[in-house]
Amino acid sequence: MDFLLALSRPPLVLGVDPRPELHGPEPLSHLRRYALEVFEALAPKLAAVKFQLAFFEALGPEGFGLLCELASAARVMGLPVIFDGKRGDIGSTAEAYARAYLLRFPGSALTVNPYLGLDTLTPFFQAARESQGAVFVLVKTSNPGSGFLQDLLVEGRPLYLRLVEALARKGEGYREGEWSRVGMVVGATYPEVVLTVREKAPHAPFLLPGVGAQGGRPLKGPGLLNTASRALFYPGGRPDLEGALQAAEDFHRALVE
Ligand SMILES: O=c1ccn([C@@H]2O[C@H](COP(=O)(O)O)[C@@H](O)[C@H]2O)c(=O)[nH]1
């Protein structure tokens, strides 16, 4: 499956940030069952499933096993997968991260951190092209303090915008039809920034985290993948299949009507 197919699906991404303490006496088996039920029930309303690697890593080796199992199950259900790991390192290590999440899981996407420089992102972009995947580069993150570095003025323009311009240029080399395999993360908590970034990067898929629990509202537009984790996976703060379906229907209505 080519990740870019996610852009022709409904524009909502289910975030999976598992909290075993909410899953009773046998947390991992309950979590596995619950996640599979949620994937199946919500699949027709989703562009993709985003797995937050930190929450799986925090569960130790069993957590990594569960991540692989759930990622495979999502793909079998026809759902593209995003690994939210915000990886980034010198080139040789970036290559290893790219092998781990893009080449071993063809057709998936990975979030990456640009702080080390654009040269360190090339292994991710090349792996995404080879595996029909995608890369989402952190540009303007959803957190309240993101401006501390990202909004710094550099030669009169915010740093995030300079990054966007450079990525948009680079992304042209990884474009297939309308969309590039070089995507960007822009917080749904900054809707005005989403518009500014879109003007500079018309062919980049955008991952918009922060919908729901962080106060961001769903945003409509081509190539915008609205992402909610707690609000969809744990509506009301706990596992609730009916509630998850209702929340997905509400977001879906806001996005497609
Ligand atoms: O700018 C960013 C980048 C990534 N995230 C991740 O998205 C989810 C958000 O969870 P919610 O429960 O929907 O708030 C989480 O995995 C973050 O690590 C982000 O929030 N902002």
Automatic annotation (TrEMBL):
Species per Swiss-Prot/TrEMBL record: Thermus scotoductus
Gene3D superfamilies, alphabetized: Aldolase class I
Record's keyword annotation contains Lyase: yes
Coiled coil residues, start to end: none
All copies of domain Orotidine 5'-phosphate decarboxylase, residue ranges: 11-245
Record-linked InterPro entries: Aldolase_TIM (IPR013785), OMPdecase_AS (IPR018089), OMPdecase_type-2 (IPR011995), OMPdeCOase_dom (IPR001754), RibuloseP-bd_barrel (IPR011060)
Any GO BP: 'de novo' pyrimidine nucleobase biosynthetic process
Presence of the UniProt keyword Lyase in the record: yes
Family of the protein in this entry: Belongs to the OMP decarboxylase family. Type 2 subfamily.
UniProt keywords, alphabetically: Decarboxylase, Lyase, Pyrimidine biosynthesis
A molecular-function term among this protein's GO annotations: orotidine-5'-phosphate decarboxylase activity
EC number: 4.1.1.23
Pathway: Pyrimidine metabolism; UMP biosynthesis via de novo pathway; UMP from orotate: step 2/2
Pfam family name, one: OMPdecase
Catalytic-site annotation from UniProt: K86
Protein name per Swiss-Prot or TrEMBL: Orotidine 5'-phosphate decarboxylase
Gene this chain is encoded by: pyrF
UniProt cross-references to CDD domains, sorted A to Z: OMP_decarboxylase_like
Catalytic activity of the protein: orotidine 5'-phosphate + H(+) = UMP + CO2
